[in-house]
């Protein structure tokens, strides 16, 4: 297997609903990535595209649509969907294609346009698609799943409403320093605690909405391209995990979960992160920056445990002790996280990788983590999807 | 029990009241012992032969393992005639079946909800259809 490097990254800043089409956003991100990598379009030998599920035929073949914008060259174009871990799948395929010697330089990208309103069922077949049951019969929007787990956590480990609010305070401080974030307002603890409940115990400012955004990453093993790149970032491992039988987590779109745990919570992310640690020889103790999926304040806490940065039930203490702040032992989400961006399904995992790469390349201005050498991007996707990417400089 | 003759579940094969008691419908794998809800949500233990999956009715009663209070209306295709927000949603544990199942809680005094309390399966009337039937979903209520 060859060493693979990130030489170019690009994003379209995160925003709310737009009348523009997803390919327009994708093109901006890809253009920026090409400029950053200082290469021409013709150098791209494969496209691993995250699909845009609400985009119909165009969205499902997003790679072909993008290729036609930049000029068709006959290269392999693969379109992939793994819910919110779609970007993890695309960069993993790009990495594997290059590491195996199939191609030298590949593009991974994803773009998503926020739907007007809510994400709901995409079919009408309740036998085939249990998502139909949860929407028609269950009355279960996504944040309810997180609230049910959050309540269990509060009961079991004593997580407080202040802990949940503190996550937002930190995220909003970092988001205010990130020009590409969608939400830049800084909140105090009091303001967060005064925000309305969406689903008790989670408040409006403690869950993330859906957003529009695009992200693109160019990876290569071509020595010439690596040598001329600005601070190329080595990918030490990029993995995907699925769930393990007996995982007690109530997964989004499910109507039930095991009552007796036989596997870790969020086992898909446990699987992805442990694979990454094993493949890279890098452990949690070596990580200088962690970008984790803070879909809600509960996620921020539980992911520190799932990924092995502390034992179960200890994440609250890490937060309270300031260990997860910029300047702390393990800066978490210096980007401002999903809390400051919102979810753009097929783009968000790549955006997390890009934040890590930008930090390692020293490009993050007011939110820069000094001296970071190793960074980890961790994703979470519904129904047992997850990816981990570990990078170093 | 109230008159159930004019009621119909919005989606079939999830909730049953033919025995005179409201109970959830699922399945059990007799090879690996895992219970499924809904019954098509297969969750076999790895290497299970998957032989002997049979339909089951869950017990009427279970314990509240977690809950939340939803303050905003659930978007379509969810539909109720009457405003139900804020409403409770629970995870009710059926101990012998080693499963927790979600469901709307019909309790209106949401302050009384507490993890560990005993709950029973019931139905929630959602709306009246064109045939003048009450369209229902499954739900849970506190055992009084
Ligand atoms: Zn089985």
Automatic annotation (TrEMBL), chain A:
Thiolase C-terminal domain mapped to chain residues: 269-390
Swiss-Prot/TrEMBL keywords: Transferase
GO MF entries: acetyl-CoA C-acyltransferase activity
InterPro entries: Thiolase, Thiolase-like, Thiolase_C_2, Thiolase_N
The organism's place on the tree of life at top rank: Bacteria
Domain Thiolase N-terminal: 17-220
Pfam families: Thiolase_C_1 (PF22691), Thiolase_N (PF00108)
PANTHER family, per the entry: ACETYL-COA C-ACETYLTRANSFERASE, NON-SPECIFIC LIPID-TRANSFER PROTEIN-LIKE 2
Name of the protein described by the UniProt record: Acetyl-CoA acetyltransferase
Organism: Desulfopila aestuarii DSM 18488
From TrEMBL, chain B:
Family matches, as SUPFAM superfamilies: Nucleic acid-binding proteins
Coiled-coil region(s): none
InterPro entries associated with the record: ChsH2_C, NA-bd_OB-fold, Thioester_dehydratase-like
Pfam families attached to this UniProt entry: OB_ChsH2_C
Domain annotation ChsH2 C-terminal OB-fold: ranges: 57-120
Top-level taxon of the source organism: Bacteria
Protein name: Uncharacterized OB-fold protein, contains Zn-ribbon domain
Source species of the chain: Desulfopila aestuarii DSM 18488
């Amino acid at each position: 297997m060859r060493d693979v490097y990130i030489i170019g990254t690009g994003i379209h800043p995160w925003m709310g609903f737009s009348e523009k089409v997803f390919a327009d956003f994708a093109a901006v991100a890809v253009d920026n990535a090409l400029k950053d990598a200082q290469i021409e379009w013709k150098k791209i030998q494969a496209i691993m595209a995250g699909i845009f599920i609400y985009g119909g035929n165009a969205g499902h073949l997003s790679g072909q649509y993008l290729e036609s914008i930049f000029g068709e060259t006959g290269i392999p174009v693969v379109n992939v969907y793994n819910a919110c871990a779609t970007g993890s799948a695309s960069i993993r395929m790009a990495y594997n294609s290059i590491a195996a010697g199939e191609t030298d330089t590949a593009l991974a990208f994803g773009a998503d346009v926020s739907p007007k309103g809510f994400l709901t069922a995409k079919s009408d077949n309740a036998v085939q698609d249990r998502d139909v049951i949860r929407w028609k019969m269950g009355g279960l929007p996504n944040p309810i799943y997180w609230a049910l787990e959050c309540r269990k956590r509060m009961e079991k480990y004593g997580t407080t409403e202040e802990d949940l609010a503190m996550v937002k305070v930190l995220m909003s401080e970092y988001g205010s320093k990130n020009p590409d974030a969608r939400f830049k307002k800084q909140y105090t603890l009091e303001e967060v605690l005064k925000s309305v409940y969406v689903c008790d115990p989670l408040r409006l400012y403690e869950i993330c909405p859906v957003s529009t955004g695009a992200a693109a990453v160019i990876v290569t093993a071509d020595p010439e391209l690596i040598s001329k790149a600005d601070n190329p970032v080595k990918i030490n491992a990029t993995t995907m995990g699925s769930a393990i039988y007996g995982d007690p987590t109530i997964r989004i779109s499910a109507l039930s979960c095991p009552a007796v745990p036989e596997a870790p919570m969020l086992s898909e992310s446990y699987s992805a992160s442990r694979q990454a640690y094993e493949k890279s020889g890098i452990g949690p103790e070596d990580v200088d920056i962690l970008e984790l999926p803070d879909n809600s304040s509960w996620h921020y806490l539980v992911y520190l445990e799932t990924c092995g940065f502390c034992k179960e039930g200890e994440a609250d203490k890490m937060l309270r002790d300031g260990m997860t702040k910029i300047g702390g032992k393990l800066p978490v989400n210096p980007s401002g996280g999903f809390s400051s961006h919102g979810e753009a399904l097929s783009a968000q995992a790549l955006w997390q990788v890009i934040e890590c790469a930008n930090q390692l390349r020293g490009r993050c201005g007011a939110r820069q983590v000094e001296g970071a050498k190793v960074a980890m991007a961790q994703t979470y996707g519904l129904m047992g999807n997850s990816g981990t990417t570990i990078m170093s400089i | 029990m109230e008159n159930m003759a004019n009621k119909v579940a919005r989606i079939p094969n999830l909730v049953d009241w033919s025995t005179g008691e409201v109970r959830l419908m699922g399945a059990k794998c007799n090879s690996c012992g895992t219970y499924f809800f809904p019954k098509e949500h297969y969750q076999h233990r790895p290497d299970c032969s998957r032989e002997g999956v049979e339909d089951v009715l869950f017990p009427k009663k279970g314990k509240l393992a977690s809950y939340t209070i939803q303050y905003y209306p659930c978007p379509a295709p969810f539909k109720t005639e009457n405003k139900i927000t804020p409403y409770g949603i629970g995870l009710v544990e059926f101990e012998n079946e080693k499963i927790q199942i979600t469901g709307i809680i019909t309790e209106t005094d949401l302050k009384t909800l507490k993890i560990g309390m005993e709950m029973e399966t019931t139905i929630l009337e959602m709306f009246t259809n064109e045939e003048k039937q009450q369209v229902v979903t499954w739900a849970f209520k506190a055992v009084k």
